[in-house]
Amino acid sequence: MPTFNLLSDIATYCAEKNCSIPDAMLDYELAQGRSSREAILAMLDKTLAVMEQAVEQGLTQLMLTKSGMLKNWAKTVFEAKVSTLGLPLQKAVARALAVSEVNACMGKIVAAPTAGSSGIMPATLVTMREEHQIPREKLIEGLLVSASVGLIFAKNSSFAGSEAGCMGETGSAAAMAASTIVYLLGGTIEQTFEAAGIALKGAMGLVCDPVAGLVEEPCAVRNAIGVANAFTSAQIALAGVKSLIPPDEVIFATKEVGELMSPRLKESALGGLANAKTAREIQKKVFRSDDVKLIGE
Ligand code: SF4
């Protein structure tokens, strides 16, 4: 039975078995008692379909959250006439916003790895499909690659905003997506995991400070920036740049940083943006109460 506690364990397994990361993850899943390769792939196909539908929904339907904080941002970005770095990145950013809006409007999303960070993987996969004509079977393999990074991150750090801040949510999602991109573009196993480490370095220390405690602001923009982080990190890794700190050590560092972070910055909505004057005014309006205790009052 494969035992994967580190990314390097997966890389070693692949070298010993002369197999790919998706094959290693299928072996891992089967060893956990999943029924068959076919069943796992069918489940991933459904997962991908939900991701694609969420992107479509966010870009075509009215997206207005009950709090009023998110208002069709995805469509606004998708249709914007000025691109900072070209249309593909503009669309990727819009797709990440789209799924975040669907999530905030209580629509159906895939929590990969969490609902708060659910925009990054779909935006990545849909963008890779469109820009690189990646076939569906390969995109499903990409999901297995993302799962390999997610598995090791979950074992050695935390997906929870309450433990690792937004670094644990959108940071880990960016790492999963960065590895997926490298795999889909034919990078080596070393480059694939290197991309995860680079993405996490870019998200190190990112706090969780949701306004009014709702997964809307700054969550949506953190998904948008997360997808940009993923493509940036993948680009660096694919170019062959090797980071000084190995990806497994970067994951351990995220755990330490999460532990050092103040509880006010870990999903409690007590600090950071959640404690900004405007955020507190929004919080009062959302909950229609003057009893909301403002920190510092
Ligand atoms: S700010 Fe907090 S709630 Fe929002 S996406 Fe990040 S971790 Fe999740």
Overall strand count: 0
What portion of the residues fall into strands of 2 or more residues? under 5%
Ligand inventory: iron/sulfur cluster
Under CATH, the topology is which? 2-methylcitrate dehydratase PrpD
* Rg calc: 19 Å
Distance between the termini: 57 Å
What does this protein structure show overall?
- The protein is an all-alpha fold and 297 residues long.
- It has one domain (22-287): 2-methylcitrate dehydratase PrpD (Orthogonal Bundle), CATH 1.10.4100.
- It contains 12 helices and no strands.
- It has helices spanning 7-17, 21-31, 37-60, 73-78, 87-104, 120-132, 136-156, 161-184, 189-203, 219-238, 247-260, 277-287.
- Helix 7 (136-156) packs antiparallel against helix 8 (161-184) and helix 9 (189-203) packs parallel to helix 11 (247-260).
- The longest helix has 24 residues, at 37-60.
- The N and C termini lie far apart (57 Å).
- The mean pLDDT is 96.
- The protein binds iron/sulfur cluster.
Index terms:
globular, binds iron/sulfur cluster, 2-methylcitrate dehydratase PrpD, single chain, 12 helices, 297 residues
Quick description:
This protein is an all-alpha fold and 297 residues long.
